[in-house]
């Protein structure tokens, strides 16, 4: 069973630069494009759009990559 997050949840995730913190913007259950990349989200494999506190940039992450703060 995958983790569930709600809009506004404060979360952290790992990047190549280290740990990053931010918040959940929304759950994405359909394919979409972010920063020129296609996010292959679906109802069965939903991803979360998160916004970094530091850079204010948005990215998509799988639920298992995120941790609640």
The dominant shape is globular
Q: Termini separation (Å)?
A: 20 Å
User: Strand order, biggest sheet?
Assistant: 6-5-2-1-7
The tally of helices reads 0
Q: Radius of gyration, Cα only, in angstroms?
A: 11 Å
Number of strands: 7
Sheet/helix structural class: mainly beta
- Note the run of SSEs as H and E: EEEEEEE
Largest sheet: 5 strands, antiparallel
Beta-strand percentage?
over 45%
Oligomer: single chain
Count of the domains: 1
Instruction: Give the overall average pLDDT.
Output: 94
Which bin fits the share of residues in helices? Answer: under 10%
Low-confidence stretches: none
Commentary on this structure:
The chain has strands at residues 10-15, 18-28, 32-34, 37-39, 47-52, 58-61, 67-68. With 69 residues, the protein is an all-beta fold. It has one domain. Strand 5 (47-52) and strand 6 form a beta hairpin.
